[in-house]
Design goal:
This protein is an alpha+beta fold and 453 residues long. It has four domains: 5-33 and 157-194; 36-151, Beta-Lactamase; 244-292; 305-448, 2-Layer Sandwich (Heat Shock Protein 90), CATH 3.30.565. The protein contains nine helices and 14 strands. It has helices at residues 5-33, 36-53, 69-77, 153-202, 218-264, 270-296, 308-325, 344-361, 413-423; strands spanning 55-57, 63-65, 82-88, 93-97, 116-120, 125-135, 138-146, 305-307, 329-333, 339-341, 367-373, 377-381, 427-432, 438-443. β1 and β2 form a beta hairpin. α1 (5-33) packs antiparallel against α4. The longest helix has 50 residues, at 153-202. The chain is elongated. It starts with a helix and ends in a 10-residue tail after the last strand.
Length: 453
């Protein structure tokens, strides 16, 4: 199934944005990942900041340390890897954890206010840092040391850098850029979409008109102009075909009617009866050829509605006398109205052809049943010889008749019914009747079908 141009452009633009964002993330990741020492130091600085946030004072002015459980978690979970100390200016320890990793208070070369030192002894490699915090004139020195990084502090620093320098500034910009581009493309393609919608409307309109060209770019306008030229020629050809069919039928009907009237004045005899039958056959063929031309050019507007049950009632009432003359009977089963999108006259003509075909093949004294179902099916069932499976695909071909059809048929009735069904978005199907016979079913498109309660 083909996609719309807007959908294709949208997918490609999103793919470009995703690609550019991914490349940017990889570039930033490679940039920050190239300086591991800086990431280690930022991790130490982050721990010092968390410890500093845990300092406070009581109403009496005493300094207290109230860390959260998450702040202390790495020191309790990894006592061999992380340690800290909070000490007064004079060397008194306020609080400490895992002091074996820490240098003695006031030891050199530690300094204050974010100076970082890496102590790499023979047995222990430490990354340490200190910070001096002042609270109402009192000074607290915070010292942190780490011998390894099982809590992945450096990794979290790395991810935080990506979040602050890529995700936060870039993704909103990429989203806004994508939305703006999609809206711009949609507006730019709106005239083309209008032309496409107009082309779809032609399929359900009784007239073929030009496609709109307002707002189209020069490249697309050339295509639409060429299409409009082709549509104009097609409209002229269809109109000429309709006019020719109507004029030919009118021109033939009048002399045939006069000829039939004159033949009726001849003395009764076998020759006169034969000629009259031939003229009637030619008259019927002329009428059917006109119906074929009308069915081929039939277009059903979407807003045209009719009751399928009423179509069946009209056909049965008009064909009842003909059925009696043929020694058969007609029955109707239509319990409730079935509203459809359709042309009443065209559907009635198709149904008459189905009924006439059934009466021609049904044995003397049998009944032909016309049924309308709520799901939009008009069925004509007879008790005739039926249709062989290998012949069912051929019965709707023009002028095709089976070997049993030597009863005055033109070979056009089922072809007309099939084309009327197709014009309504449906189809003509044939099924075997239980007990013998054929069920000719005129199915309408379920998309256009609504059942009246």
């Amino acid at each position: 199934m083909s996609s719309s141009l807007v959908a294709i452009v949208r997918r490609r633009m999103i793919a470009v944005v995703v690609l550019v964002t991914t490349l940017n993330i990889l570039f930033v990741a490679a940039y920050y990942g190239s300086d591991i020492d800086a990431l280690h130091l930022e991790g130490v600085d982050g721990q010092l900041a968390k410890l500093a946030e845990s300092l406070g004072k009581t109403p009496e002015g005493d300094i207290v340390f109230s860390p959260s459980a998450s702040t202390l978690r790495i020191y309790t979970a990894y006592p061999q890897s992380y340690g800290f100390r909070l000490s007064h200016r004079d060397g008194r320890v306020l609080h400490e954890m895992n002091p074996s990793l820490l240098p003695p208070p006031k030891s050199e070369p530690f300094k204050h206010d974010g100076t970082w030192l890496s102590d790499r002894g023979a047995d222990l490699k430490l990354l340490s840092g200190s910070r001096l915090v002042r609270l109402d004139g009192q000074e607290i020195e915070i010292t942190f040391s780490g011998s390894s990084d099982p809590a992945h502090l450096t990794l979290f620093v790395f991810l935080d850098e990506l979040l602050r320098h890529v995700v936060v500034p870039l993704l909103p910009f990429a989203a806004i850029l994508t939305i703006v581009n999609i809206v711009t493309v949609r507006r730019a393609l709106a005239p083309l979409m209008n032309a496409a919608n107009a082309a779809h409307e032609i399929a359900t309109s009784s007239k073929i008109g030009p496609l709109p060209t307002a707002g189209l770019t020069s490249e697309v306008r050339d295509l639409v102009d060429a299409t409009n030229t082709a549509l104009a020629r097609l409209a002229e050809s269809l109109e000429a075909e309709r006019a020719f069919a109507a004029e030919a039928a009118h021109a033939l009907r009048t002399p045939l009617a006069i000829l039939t009237a004159r033949l009726a004045q001849l003395p009764p005899g076998e020759i006169s009866r034969s000629i009259i039958a031939d003229v009637k056959g030619v008259t019927r063929l002329t009428s059917q050829l006109l119906s074929v031309a009308q069915a081929d050019t039939l277009i059903v507007p979407r807003d045209k509605r009719c009751d399928l049950a009423e179509v069946a009632r009209d056909v049965v009432s008009r064909m009842a006398a003909f059925a009696i003359d043929q020694g058969r009977s007609l029955a109707l089963v239509a319990d409730r109205p079935v509203e459809i999108c359709g042309d009443f006259d065209a559907l009635a003509h198709a149904a008459r052809n189905l009924v006439e075909n059934a009466l021609r093949f049904a044995p003397q004294g049998t009944e032909v049943v016309v049924t309308v179902t709520p799901d939009g099916c008009l069925e004509v069932a007879d008790q005739g010889p039926g249709i062989a499976d290998e012949l069912k695909p051929r019965v709707t071909e023009r002028f095709w008749r089976s070997s049993e059809a030597g009863k005055g048929g033109t070979g056009l009735g089922l072809a007309i019914a099939a084309r009327v069904a197709a014009a309504h978005g449906g189809e003509l199907r044939f099924a075997d009747r239980k007990g013998g016979g054929t069920r000719a079913q005129l199915w309408l498109s379920p998309i256009r079908l609504t059942s009246a309660a």
